[in-house]
Design brief:
7-stranded mixed β-sheet; 366 residues
Length: 366
């Protein structure tokens, strides 16, 4: 029988750890809404209306996946402008995590703008010579540790893009976290963009899916592609109902999650074995950088799950330096159970275990 360390997880920094994603918990949340009389008769319509109001858009449409929603948005912008190219950061989720579906399914081309290890800038966008149908901003930029452009920089970038006839699209899978840095209403952030996608299952802990928002004509056209791509199959009320519960329970806690992220980062950086980037975190999302390679850290992490029942990461990121690796933390309700000093101590233990098991030893501090 294959050993499965995840089965022993009792506490986790990882937002979607198995111990926090049990079907029984999702069913219990839905039944609570039904029992207290707050469940709407049509959860999908209620969710779409609520998000349209919250984000200041004319219309919204629930998709089974964010992958489908964003590809449809970019296709519509391309058809409206007669251009096949869109621009985005080199580590855009559409390219890194979705097997280039924008090209394989819709025949679109990606123009990468900027350095893959830095935020996209106004100069990067100005250097894009090919006419584009749209530009995508991921707020915050997950693969950069949750970094965000400053508000005035973001507005200047969007003004430039629009002056060239392109649409501005927001990959707002983590818009809820981004709002804790900008400190502006959700509708003001979303109002910068022609189209907006938000995730239902990440920080909101919905079952699945995402919502695409824009003006009424845009969303009506998106509905055509939702049907063509098979996205209308089945009843989506479970996704909608759990997302509504997440909006009620989790959205009001985002500021507290960000404050806890800042406190954890300070404790880890003060300990000095690892370091957190950004410092301080701009959102509840940040990266922990370790002076040990991926394989050694994976072994150490499995040991800590087996011995303590504590999971510190879901996936390790490699580095050009094989003696280093990193992992992502997104602070949610489960992370609030960990005191900052406890996290620092656990990470120190992780590194010590990893460096003992690694013949190369620890990497020297940068």
């Amino acid at each position: 029988m294959t050993h499965n360390p995840a089965a022993q997880v009792r506490r986790s920094l990882f937002l979607h750890a198995p111990v926090y994603r049990k079907p029984a918990d999702a069913l219990r949340r839905m039944l609570e809404l039904v029992d207290d009389g707050t469940a709407p008769d049509d959860p999908q319509a209620a969710l779409e209306a609520r998000l349209a109001t919250l984000l200041g858009k004319e219309a919204a449409l629930l998709f089974p996946t964010g992958t489908m929603a964003q590809q449809v948005a970019l296709r519509l912008h391309a058809e409206a402008r007669g251009r096949l190219t869109f621009a985005a950061h080199p580590q855009t989720h559409l390219d890194s995590w979705e097997m280039q579906g924008y090209a394989a399914v819709h025949g679109l081309r990606l123009q990468r703008a900027g350095d893959r290890h830095e935020l996209m800038t106004l100069a990067d966008l100005a250097a894009v010579a090919e006419p584009t149908a749209a530009v995508v901003w991921e707020l915050p930029q997950r693969d950069l540790g949750g970094l965000l452009p400053e508000w005035d920089d973001l507005r200047a970038q969007i003004d430039l893009v629009r002056s060239r006839g392109a649409a501005a699209h927001l990959d707002g899978a983590r818009l809820w976290e981004a709002q804790t840095y900008y400190r502006r209403p959700h509708h003001e952030i979303a109002g910068l963009f022609d189209s907006v996608y938000v995730s239902l299952y990440k920080s909101l802990h919905g079952l699945a899916g995402g919502v695409l928002l824009g003006d009424a004509d845009f969303i009506a056209a998106a509905g055509v592609w939702l049907t063509r791509l098979g996205g209308r199959a089945g009843d989506k009320w479970p996704q909608a109902l759990t997302a509504l519960a997440g909006l009620d329970r989790l959205l009001p806690q985002m500021d507290a999650f960000r404050d806890h992220a800042v406190a954890i980062a300070a404790a880890v950086n003060a300990d000095g074995v690892a370091y957190v980037h950004p410092d301080p975190p701009q959102t509840p999302l940040f990266h922990v950088h370790l002076p040990a390679g991926r394989q050694a850290v994976e072994r150490a992490g499995a040991e800590m799950v087996a011995e303590h029942g504590v999971q510190l990461f879901a996936r390790l990121r490699t580095s050009p330096d094989p003696r280093r690796s990193s992992f992502e933390v997104t602070v949610g309700e489960n992370t609030m159970e960990f005191a900052p000093d406890e996290v620092a101590a656990l990470i120190r233990e992780l590194v010590e275990r990893a460096t003992v098991s690694s013949p190369a030893g620890p990497a020297r501090p940068a």
